Amino acid sequence: MAASLARLPTAAPSPRRSRRAGDRLWSVGLVAAGGAILLVAGLVILVLGRAAAPAFHALGVGRFLAGQDWDPVSGAFGALPFIYGTLVTSAVAILVALPVAVGLSLFLAEMGPPRLRPPVAFAIETLASIPSVIYGLWGLFVLVPWVRTTVEPLLGRLLGWLPLFTGPRIGLGYLSAGLILAVMILPTIAAVTQEVLRSIPPALKEGALALGATRWEMIRIAVLPTARAGILGATLLGLGRALGETMAVTMVIGNAPEIHASLFAAGYSLPAVIANEFAEATSPLHLSALAALALVLLGVTLVLNSAARVLVLLTSRRLGEAS
Amino acid sequence: MLKTVIAGALMAAGLAAAGEPVLVTGAGATFPFPLYSRWFADYDKVRPDVRFNYQSIGSGGGIQQITAGTVDFGASDAPLTDEQLGRIPDVVHVPTVLGAVVLTYNAPMPSLRLTPEIVAGIYLGRIARWDDAAIAAANPGVALPAEDIAVVHRSDGSGTTNIFTNYLSKVSPEWKEKVGFATSVRWPTGLGGKGNEGVTGLVKQTPGAIGYVELAYAKQNGLPMAALRNHDGRFVAPTIASTSEAAAGVEMPADYRVSITDARGPGAYPIASFTYLLVHRDARDPVRGEAMIRFLWWAIHQGQAAAAPLDYAPLPRAVVERVERTLRALTVQGRPVSLAPAR
Lengths: 323, 343
Hints:
The structure holds 2 protein chains of 2 kinds.
Chain A: H1 2-6, H2 15-59, H3 61-66, E1 70-71, E2 76-77, H4 80-111, H5 117-129, H6 132-159, H7 174-198, H8 202-210, H9 215-244, H10 247-252, H11 270-277, H12 284-322
Helix pairs in contact in A: 2-12, 4-7, 4-9, 5-7, 6-7, 7-9, 8-9, 9-12, 11-12
Chain B: H1 2-15, E1 22-28, H2 33-46, E2 50-55, H3 59-68, E3 73-76, H4 82-87, E4 91-105, E5 113-114, H5 116-124, H6 133-138, E6 150-154, H7 159-171, H8 173-178, E7 191-193, H9 195-205, E8 209-214, H10 215-220, E9 227-229, E10 235-236, H11 240-248, E11 272-280, E12 282-283, H12 286-300, H13 317-329, E13 331-332, E14 335-336
Parallel strand pairs in B: 1-2, 1-3, 5-9, 6-7, 6-8, 12-13
Antiparallel strand pairs in B: 3-11, 4-8, 4-11, 9-10, 13-14
Helix pairs in contact in B: 12-13
């Protein structure tokens, strides 16, 4: 890098000074690259904010966020059903995907025969590269009927006393959306978790084994506590994908802007309603309300990301105190 | 005819730099997009020097684009509202073809007849079972299943929803008051599927489901379609002919901004609608403006033959004659364009 810059006419002839000029150029470039990210993020917020302003102005921020009515005809817009749907489906996705992903990663990194690793790793990568519209179609034609005829009756029979698993069983709804999101974020969480597990110093594990721990005890006392912060980070990546997923969710969530306690009920999510209604929205207030939803989605992502970061920080600090 | 074409071609060639094709850009409705792209391809044989670039981004997007002045023409399934037209008062509606919305269902009946009251009752959530007395009365001799009705609607904003809810608003005062009509509405009941394919998917795999889709989509996919009782009290099956007939029995205002749902006429199918191209009354660009007017002239005459094979309903004769007058009144920088008389 420095050598090539030295040949530039602007660079000074002395090799020492040229290196300094090169360094300076290099650091300017890096600052520009870093600044570009902030600039883009800032511009996104600025443009969305300007587009959303009429809706916030006309409806009031509080009423928009807490409103449960979404009626483009009469101009009543409330974001709560969409915020609720986004959070519930993402929570279901994390609850289902996280244990499976950690188990899968432990199997591949610690327990499973090494020969099995490449094909399983390949399968995970394939899952990660399937376009979301394919997931949506698969969800609509395979997952939803299965959820309606098998999963929901089973959950209703076993856990029907919980309000979470009551109501008519239509297949479409929070549960199906959460399950399809779980499949979609599984590869992300599993891939990062595996890397985290591989980076654990062997001395820790050998120490545990030397103290007479079984393999399971070794994982419990040496592997999982060390990897906790990393696994949280992996979950965060998965959560990011779950919050923003549009196509697959809209095809299986039922698209009803309502709030229900039951996971069997049909709901709606923030990205889904934006994608559904933006193209044909004609009234300025409707368009502005959709932009406001985009801003809300950005806000939800930001809040959850920050919360998760704090959690990672706390976890790693506690780990530092323990060792 | 040939003479006009040659004369037109020569004129355009003279105006445009030699060999440089005229590029006319437009944006809007997705529903007529298959027909429009067919028209652009066919028109290329008539006027190889005119090229079209049409973005099917949805009616709302089309209206925005022509309002912003970024395109030469827009396309919309619904006529502009007074408010929208107030922002672009120089825009003229040109109806191109008609479409219809049909009710498809997943229940073991060979045929189904529905009245406006039944359709509104189902979508309001009042009629919840197939063996409801009202449905039985409209279908004598048909074995109706003792099943719940699963209501399916579009989740994405669409012209199809606009036409369907417009129909419901006309036939049901309760619907008009509670829901109204628009490209997206607050549905009293039911599940949302994305696009015609999403609605069809839900209907096909949910026993007892009913949903609404475009006639063209239903025909191409062989879906069962319900016959509807029209304004004259006759049950009419959705076909190309019955859709065209809906446009014939309507008193047409000068700007074509008319809803033809629940139209009069013994054979008129009640959930039909025009789809429109939106152009400026006086084009600013002389070359593109003239090319657009000549294309529209071609589209309402020769172009109509391409409609039925693609499952769109052609304009009735009376409407074509009116549109001819509209096109003759269009100008390019204040000058009218000489158009050949209809054959």
